[in-house]
Specification:
Layout: E1 13-14, E2 20-21, E3 24-30, E4 40-45, E5 50-51, E6 60-63, E7 69-73, H1 74-78, E8 84-86, E9 91-94, E10 100-104
Antiparallel strand pairs: 1-3, 2-5, 3-4, 6-9, 7-8, 7-10
Amino acid sequence: MKIVSKEDAPRAVPEEREHFTGRVGMTPLVSIDEKILVRVVTVSFEPGARTHWHTHPAGQVLHVVKGAGWVQTWVDKENGKKAESIRPDDVVYIPPDEKHWHGASPG
């Protein structure tokens, strides 16, 4: 078992620009390890920052802690559906290999 408190978590580091637009910081809470099948990361988006379209082979779960944002799947976009608003305490499940983006509201 591993318990990570805010005080024990490493500092957020700026994320690579190839994956995001705007300023984004990431704090890994559970390291990537061959024995760990789940990756847990706190991601902080500056207003208006977002990911590029991407997928995850194991899927992704987003839990909004504070602020507001948006999420959209490629299938929804192709069907004319706009991005959906997400707010604190919302949880979003994105199935494996589903192309999507997510990010912060502009302000």
